[in-house]
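Attaching the record inline, Q. Sequence:
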Amino acid sequence: MISHSAGDAARFLTTADCAEILNVEVADVSALVETGELPAIKVGAQWRIEREVLESYIASLYEEQRRHALWEQSDYASLAELSGGTIIRPGD
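Structure, as predicted:
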């Protein structure tokens, strides 16, 4: 359970806090941090992730999913559509 002391505004989260929020294992969050996908700072031996950084990461995942869904739903343009109605073949 995430606990916050009064006044700290919960600016920083532990990897365990982030794992709870994302509903993943702590090792998954650690991997995101180690690859740089989820920016963090090391305080002593522990990684700390700013709440705003985690929110931004989540928003980027939503945007990635939205774009992927749009791509999957889009109709593929034909060559004629892409070329303004004219298809020029080699040798023409």
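The two ends are 70 Å apart (CA to CA). The beta strands are 12-14, 41-43, 46-50.

More tomorrow.
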